[in-house]
Structures are given as structure tokens and as C-alpha cells.
Amino acid sequence: MATATTNQGLYYDPYDRDILEDPYPVFKRLRAETPLYYNEPYDFYAVSRFADVERSLVEKETFRSIKGVLLEMIQADIEMPPGTLIHEEAPVHTIHRQLLSRVFTPRAMNAIEPLVRDFCTRRLDPLVGTDGFDFVSELGQQVPMRVFGMLLGIPEEDQEAVRDHVEESMRTEPGKPQTYEGGFGSAEFYEDFLDYRYEHPGDDLIKRLISTHFEDENGTVPTLTRDEALMYLNVIAGAGNHTTNRLIGWTGKVLGEHPDARRELAENRALIPNAIDEILRYEPSSTQIARWVGRDVDFYGETVPEGSALLCLVGSANRDDQVFPDGDRFDIHRKIRHHLTFGYGAHYCLGAALARLEGRVVLEEVLYRFPDWEVDYDNCRLGTSPGVRGYEALPVFIRSSEVLPWPTSRLLATLPCRSCSTSKRFARRRCGTAAASTAVIPSSSTPRFTLTRVTNIPAGSTRARPWGRAWSNRSKRRWNRRITRSRRK
Ligand code: HEM
Question: Which of 349, 356, 389 to probe ligand 1 with, by most ligand atoms within 8 A of CB?
Fold first, then answer.
């Protein structure tokens, strides 16, 4: 088998634009021909098979995060400020991670779902009736930023500035590595938000972050220092915004290229959670995670010396046929035990549930209005940021006004109540805030409709209205006219 030192003709350059466009042929060759790869110009090793990537993420004493999780960061050999959770090691990491997991609880995530849905509704409703939209500018750049703002209690008018700050700090010159001459990115930007929260505690993540006591490695029970809390905000903003933004872009791209899967999802929303995981596997936002090698270690009879930088090629591992049969095929029915897009082991992504939730809600709301689209390739733009791969612009043409079957019972089960946040069937009637818009359609009937056409509404029915408060009056009038027409029939 070819090894790190005999890999002539096979070159993996993480900054090469052509490889960035489609790294999968190179990944395939790396897995088959050089499972331990050494790149001389940039002086790094890379592992590409699922088992090796998984091992490198799990064995944290050997493959260390302390010098950074990006290749450039490790090579710049900069000092990490306190509070950069993702670069910390046990016991400090374990303690800080426990602290943060108390903030990212399933309860907190569930509470955020109706807000995400409401926000998507506000973005997407005005697009009904247009020829197309951009998955990134309309959704990818918006939803994670708003969610982050909601979690942290950042005022709505400042949320865009936070997003732009994150995007700017992560953008690199095409084809060039990121530089860290000034050290790790400063968290100064968040000072005002944090200080405001010290003075005016709200009910949000920042408040919990600065006020929760935890037992530290010395047995004392402090709260995070101001500097640590600032750095946490910096890390969470970077970790959560950009990556989820890219997931939403990939959703538009991948489903744009797989119309059959898209159609199936539009007809059966129960398949959406697995489809989101398949998108995460197939086109991960982070194609590689770097580690600093803490002691000499062997792969395939070759030694990777202590002090080396090792790239764990997640994008390659996720397509390894040994674990995902026919890994280059996109399949929304694939049974995925676990992929490596959110990492694995001690540093497994703390925002994974949140990212999945955002991806799912965005896709549900998109499919609800636009079951058919085509990617506008001429105007797509792939972004350049270290470790994160995805689109800065992903416009699509809306292709559909066609009718999809959608059983009433399922529709009602998925429509959340916008007032009391439950998503149970007939929730609107239960909370009594919007009883007039509750559907009373016999469950045996299966009306066929999309936003652009409604048929088969039984006489005497009132329809559940699929819009939030933000629907324009024009759209509401169009919807109501259709209902009236269908009743007359
Ligand atoms: C599609 C979206 C996302 C992807 C692909 C992603 C990916 C990752 C990966 C690969 C890691 C592990 C890095 C390592 O092992 O060195 C990680 C860690 C982390 N992620 Fe995410 N992430 C996403 C969304 C989020 C969100 C929405 C948040 C929170 C708002 C978040 C917060 C974090 C944090 C705090 C860590 C550090 C955990 C630790 O070191 O213990 N991520 N993420």
C-alpha cells in the first residue's frame, strides 16, 4: 500500500480553489492510495479514512486541540487566551463544557423552535410569487445570526453587525491560508453586550454564562471571569454562525440537484430530520479539523512525529464506503449511525442539536412554499474561510406551482401555534388565541394544495392558515379568494 512518503501524483492542497470546488475525487484517492498523507509544502499530515479520522478525534491526549483546530493556527503557534473552549483540555475543558451544556439544554433548544419558524416565515412569505431567492442571503446569513442573537439577548438592530463581524474575521484571500500575526481573534467586539448584561441581567445565555457557579480544577467555586465570558461569546459566535449558514446553503444546493429526494421530502416531512443528517454527511460545513500531535504515533507503519500538524479529513471520512456504502451517493433514506461533521469525542459540537433544528425548520418552511427549485449556477459563489466550506451566494429559480398531496392531519400536526408555541394538533384551538383559524376538516379528507393552488376543501370547512403574523395582506387576500372559489365549486 502506498504511504505518506510514496504519494507521487497525488496532491492535496487545502487552499487550492479547484480542489475546494470538488474535493471528493482527491479524497477518494487519498483513502484508497495514501491513507496517511504528508504534504511537504505546507508541512502537514492528513488522515482520510473514517476509522482514522474518528480515532484522531477521540484520542485527545495524542491528538491535541491545545494549539488550535485549524491548520494555520497550529502552525502559527500562537498563545490561546483563556475561555476558548474548543482549544481547552481536561480538566479545564471538562468543567467549562459542563457549564456550557447547562446553557444549551434540550429545553432551551425546544423553546427556540417556534422563534426560528416564525423568523423563517417572515423571511419566506414575501418571496411567495417571486421567481427565485438566494438560500444564503435570505436564510443562511439570517437564521443562525437571529438564533444566536436570541440566545444571547443581542438586540435585533445589532445582530447583523455581529454576523458581519464573524463573516469578516473568517474570510481569507482565495487560495491563501489564514494568518494569525495578531494572535487569536480578539473578543473586544462583544464587550458592550457583555457589560450591558452585567448591568442589566436578562434571561438569556449571557446571563447564565456569567452567573452560573461551577467547581474549578482547584476545588473553588467561581463564575467565569469577564475575559473568559468574552472569549466564550467569540468562540460560540464563530462556531455557530458560519457553519450553520453553510449547512443552509448546502441544503439548497444538494436538494436542488436531487429533485426526486426533494419531492419525497415535500410529500413526507417525517423524512426531513434524516435528510438533514444526510446533507451534513454528504456536504459537511467543516471538511477538516486539525490536531497537534502530542507524541510520536503510527499509522500504517509510518510514524507521525510529535509536534506535527494532522488534518482529520472529515469530508473524506463521511464518504468512506467502508462505513457508508456507496458513500458518494446522496440518499435521504440512508441509515446513518454517526457521521463526523460535528466532530467526535470530547469536543463534539455543543451546538449540534441547535444546528439540526435550524436546518430542519428552514427546510420545512422552504418546502412548504417552494417544493421545486433549480440552482442558478451562474451566480453561485463558493466562500473561502479556513476549515469551513460552503456557499456565500446560492441563488435558485423557483420552478413550481404544482400541487402536492398533503394529508390534513399531518399538516395540522406540524403547524405550530404561533402564540403558545406548542406544535400539537389543533394547538391553536387549545390555546384559544386563534380559534378562528383552526381547521375543521374531516381527517378522512386529504386536500391537495400548495400555497399557489387549493382544491378539494370540503364545503363548510375553515382552513388552517399556514401563515404567521407577517403574511402580507395581498397574500392573505389571494389565499382567501381561493378558499371561497373552492367552496363555490
Ligand atoms: C452545521 C453547523 C455546525 C457544524 C458543522 C459544527 C461543527 C463543529 C465541530 C466539527 C466541532 C468540533 C471541533 C473539534 O473537535 O475540534 C464543533 C465544536 C463546537 N461547536 Fe459546532 N458546529 C455547528 C454548529 C454549532 C452551533 C449552532 C453552535 C452554537 C451556537 C456550535 C458550538 C460549538 C461549540 C461551543 C464547540 C466546542 C465544543 C468543545 O470544544 O467542547 N456549533 N462544532
Answer: 349
